Amino acid sequence: MKDLLLVLPRLARMIASLLGDRDVPVAAKVALGVLALYVASPVDLIPDAIPFVGYLDDLLVAAIVLDGVLNFVDRSLLLKYWPGSPASLDAAAAVARRLAGWVPSRVKVRIFGGGRRGRR
């Protein structure tokens, strides 16, 4: 349960670190930057004012981007910046993969180009 509560702050730290690393591909940095802007933006596909449902679009966009980044960026680089254990990163990746599974693969391919380089 503790790892589940720490996922969001750990992800935020990892994303901030990845954005500043020269070895992270530009496409991954762009996707992470867009994710940060979308989540912070008051303009959403589903307004956040609608209880629970309003956060679904943020959650799905985050899952798509995180699943793509976790597959696109080299695992050793991810572990370098992940402030938790490798098992907790794998757990976060599994949740993102399940949520991103609801999104058509053609959408994910348009974001990340379909190439899997690092994770699996």
Task: Name its key features.
120 residues; mainly alpha; 6 helices
Give an overview in words.
With 120 residues, the chain is an all-alpha fold. The chain has one domain. The protein is built from 6 helices and no strands. The longest helix is centred in the N-terminal third of the chain and has 18 residues, at 2-19. The chain is globular. The two termini are 26 Å apart. The model is unreliable at 115-120 (pLDDT under 50).
Could you tell me the strand content as a percent range? under 5%
Question: What does the main sheet amount to?
Answer: none
| Low-pLDDT segments | 115-120
* Overall domain count: 1
- How many beta-strand runs? 0
Mean pLDDT: 80
Terminus-to-terminus distance: 26 Å
